[in-house]
Description:
Layout: E1 2-6, H1 11-22, E2 26-31, E3 42-45, H2 51-58, E4 65-68, H3 74-84, E5 90-93
Amino acid sequence: MKILFLGGTGNISAECAALLRQRGHEILVLSRGLNSVPSEYRAVRADRKDLTAMRAALKGVEPEVVINFIGFEPADVQLDYDLFRETVRQYIFISSTTVYQKPA
């Protein structure tokens, strides 16, 4: 499967991406480009908060699964819903960041 990580360079998400890649899945990581994405993954660069930028960056990418590790506010999940509701097979929100202070 083609799996898109929203936040794939942190401790937990990086481990999940590595495990899924070992199991034969294609890994894509959407980021602003501030952290490096491992070369064995496809980097997709866009501002997570900008629906237009995300649409442009993801044009033709067509992930089957989206995993969100960086949802801080309900608006983040709403943006994902607007973007992926008709195109992905499965959307997984597993972020615990909403219970912690947002990093600077």
